[in-house]
Structure formats: C-alpha cells, structure tokens
Amino acid sequence: MQQITPDFWQKSYFHRFMAHYLARKYGSDFTRRADKIQPSLAKTINIFAFCCNLFLFISKLIFALLTSSIAIMVDAFNNLSDFIATIIAFVGMQLANLPPDKEHPHGHAILERITALLVGLLVLLIGFSFLRASVLRLMHPEEVLFNPLTFVILLIGIIVKLIMHIVYKINGEFLQSQTFKANSIDTIGDVYITSCTLLSYIFSPFTNFPVDAIAALLLACLVIKNAIGLLKETISILLGQGIDKETEKELYNLLRQLPEIKSWHDLRYHEYGNVKVASIDLEVPYNMTIAELHPKIDAVEQEILEKLQIKLYTHLEPQSKSGDYCCQDKRLICLINSALQQTQSNSRLHDFELNHEKKLLRFDIEYYVDDPNTHFDQDKCREKFLRNFKRALEDANLDTFYASYDWVIGIFPNFNHISR
C-alpha cells in the first residue's frame, strides 16, 4: 500500500480532524501502518455508515408517509439502497482481507470489486423503481402536505451525508479503497438528491404544478446515471483494465535509471484488488552474465514495488549484436522497418531472430494504437503489415529467398503511446 505523505493530512480542517482521530485510536505512526489498521478502520467506517443510512431511511420513510411526498419517498429508498450497499460492502471488504492461500496466491482483494459490482446493480434496480414511481405520480398527482419537521429531517439528512462523504473521501484515499472512493461519490450525489427534494418540498404548497413528481423523476435519472457509471468502471476493472498512463511513465522512469537496461517492451499489467502485478521484457547487453545482471535488476524491481506497489516480473533478452548479421540480413531488417512505417509510423520492431539453418524468421511488433478507445484488431493489423512487408520483399527481389522460411510474427498493442 502506497504511503500517504504528511502533507495529505494538512489539506483541510477535516483532514486534520481525521488525522487527530486516527492518531488517538491507532497511534501516531498510523500512516506507516495503513495496511495493518485497514481491516479495523474499514469496519469502523462501515458500521458508522450502516447506522447513518438506517436512521435516514426510517426517518424519511415516516415523513414521506405523513406528507404523501413521492420525492421524499424516493429519497428514503435511496437511503435504503445505501444501507443495503453498506452491508454488502462490509461483508465484501471483510472477505477481501482474507490472506492469500494455495488457490488464491494474490489474496482475495478482488472481492472488493465484486462487492462494488453488486452495489451498482442494486442502485440501478432501485433507480428504475424510482423512475416508475415518478411517472405514475405524474400521471396521477397527489397533494403534498407541508410539515415543518420534514424540512428539518431533510436538512439533517444533507448534513449527515456531507459528513459521510468527507469520511469516505479521506479514508478512501488513505486506504486506497475503491469501494470507499465510490461511496464518496455516491454520498455527494445523495446530498444533491436530498437538496433537490428539499426544494421541491418547499415549493409544492405554492403551485399546482407537480413539482414533487418532476423532482422525483430527475432524481431517479440521476440515480440511474450514477449506477451505470459505477458499473462501467467496476466491470472495466474486472475485465482487466490496463495500467494508467501516469503510472506507466513512472515505471519507465525507474527502469531508465539502470544503464544496463537498453530497451523494454511487452508490458503486461494485472490488478487483483489492491494487488498489482506486471511483467515486462528487458533488453540487456548480450555480453553480460545473469550473475552480473541479477542484483541490479532485483534492486530495480524492489524500488518499483516500494514506490508504485507493483510486483514486477522481468524477462531478460540479450540485445542483438549487429555484427552477427550479414548485409542481406541487415537489409531485411530495414525492409521490416520500412513496412512498419507504412503500417503505423510509431510502431517498432523487437526480438528479431533470423536462423538460416532452421529457415526461421521470428520477430515481434509493438503496434502503436492511434485511438486508445478503439478496439484493437490484431488480425487486421497483421494483414496490413504482411501486405506491406511482402511488397517490400518483392521490390527488393528477396521474396523468393524468404518464401521457404517460417514466419513467426507477434503483434502487441501499445495503447498508452509510451515506449523506450
């Protein structure tokens, strides 16, 4: 877990107050022991949220029934969904803290993502229920009865949700918890929802226009929008979201510090909850031994683990010695690079291997994807490159010579556009 700097706790009064509370509860060195106190602190926060949402649901439900306000009813059941989500989050985070075992060597932290998925589905279901109730109220309006106590309850609800937002936001960053970060967004959304409900409740007695139903309809749409956003983000992570551009740049900067690393390619990144694992191919001098390289590479891997919390596995490849190739081989490399330029100008060649005895031509291509948001079609890219490469061989009168060779070509996408 990445250690939070002391400046983090000086950002605002609320950060300082939270730091004071955590220091009293866990000791002055709580920041350095974030991974140790995480289960206990997460449990405390979930119990706090559990009590807040239960209180808000019961109080708003009572006053919604007393005033016949559909907007307050929607707000009440929104708090019920938050209450249920808190239970799911509590169970999920407890299971996510289980230690690694034989069947799950990277631990169980991915369960926190699955928890977020369940919460998103629940919120989406309730959002559509709100939408249906709002449409029915528009079709069959009912009078909203004004009650001063309801105004007070809604105001208290806004204050409670603001406090919950602050608690979730600060501790989500401190514990690097996606669930708490998501809940911080959800709670500030609840503040907007309750504020809108409060305004509709105030104006309802002064007009025949169905302000209450319109407000409920808008709130239902907002709930659905937030749920879809949460689901999209969670599913993206569960499907195997790639490394973000800033982290990748920091990782490459750490690799550059070792002069023996001449180049790198084929970075593969995986997240298992808060466990980050990556592998990469490093090109090193062909005349250095493993005994010479191992301690240096090991030191870089350790530094990356400490600074980026990424467990990096490296595959070492000897950098090609240009003197080993004859003039025709060097010409072949130029033709490959020329075909690459025609296919995608920023793509590059690596892992080139040419064995005349076995009649084997093997190399990999790091393909620069123009638009990171588009789907990468490997077959289409391969077909385009081969078309350009075969044309280049024909123009150089080398197509017949290499026609009997086995061609093994690997194509790997580069979405972040960062390379050596």
Structure notes:
This protein has 420 residues and is an alpha/beta fold. The chain contains twelve helices and six strands. Helix 2 packs antiparallel against helix 5, helix 3 packs parallel to helix 7 and helix 8 runs antiparallel to helix 9. The longest helix has 34 residues. It is elongated, with a radius of gyration of 29 Å.
Alpha carbon gap, first and last residue:
28 Å
- Share in helix: 55-70%
Which ranges are low-confidence, i.e. pLDDT below 50, for 5 or more consecutive residues?
Answer: none
Mean pLDDT, rounded to whole units?
80
**CA-atom Rg in angstroms:** 29 Å
Shape: elongated
Number of helices: 12
Q: In terms of structural class, how would the helical and strand content be classed?
A: alpha/beta
Strand content: 5-15%
Number of strands: 6
Write out the strand line-up for the largest beta sheet, numbering strands in chain order. 1-2-3
Report the sheet with the most strands, covering strand number, pairing sense and barrel closure: 3 strands, mixed
Order of helices and strands: HHHHHHHHEEHEHEEHHE
